[in-house]
Amino acid sequence: MDEASPYLALYRECGALLEGHFLLSSGLHSDRYLQSALVLQYPDQAERLCQALVPELPPGIDLVVGPALGGVVVAYEMARALGVKAQFTERKDGGMSLRRGFRIPSGARVLIMDDVVTTGSSIRECHSALPTDRAEVLGCGCLVDRSQGEADLGELPLYSLVSLPVGTWDPADCPLCAAGESLEKPGSR
Ligand SMILES: [Zn+2]
Q: How far is the CA of 124 from the centre of ligand 1 (A)?
């Protein structure tokens, strides 16, 4: 794993990676908490992170699409780094779709881009919103892969800047609870 990555150090400096004992919105407990918005609020850092991923990506990408909200800023910055267009999909009435007049040009070679990959569900939803007869999806990019290889992206390859394990547990099985560590709810302060 990439514990010593300078990009993780940047996440920590910006308060975008917290370590401790956290109550997640899902009700699970975790030992780490990621909030990419806190590093991406600095445009120069967002640019630096996305540029750093470019050498890992396959050639020929001509469109970047991100799932809103988490994927909007990183898709935009990745598109800037690649010199191509950025679009995003968004949730409406329970499904993810391309809205706002975005159109995928026929034959587009697409990178789907998100900030953090956990289960891959946002990326799968974004992928399913793209017209299969027009878009050729080359893969998915992310800044932090916290899936430990468990993300389900179908056949799509994943290109990540950093891999980071995050422990998550049901409260009843949480070793941090067992150790008496006080529980924090991130974003509540
Ligand atoms: Zn706990």
A: 29
CA dist 45 and 154 (Å) reads: 31
Span 133-160, mean pLDDT? Answer: 95
**Axis crossing angle, helix 6-13 with helix 43-53, rounded to the nearest 10:** 160
| Mean per-residue pLDDT over the chain, rounded | 94
> Two tokens at 133?
């007869």
Interatomic CA distance for residues 91 and 109, integer angstroms: 23
The yes-or-no verdict on residue 188 having pLDDT over 70 is no
Locate the domains of the chain by residue range: 6-178
pTM, 2 dp:
0.92
- Give me ligand 1 centre to Cα 103, in Å: 45
Which CATH number fits the domain 6-178, given the four candidates 1.20.120.530, 3.40.50.720, 3.40.50.2020, 3.40.50.1820? 3.40.50.2020
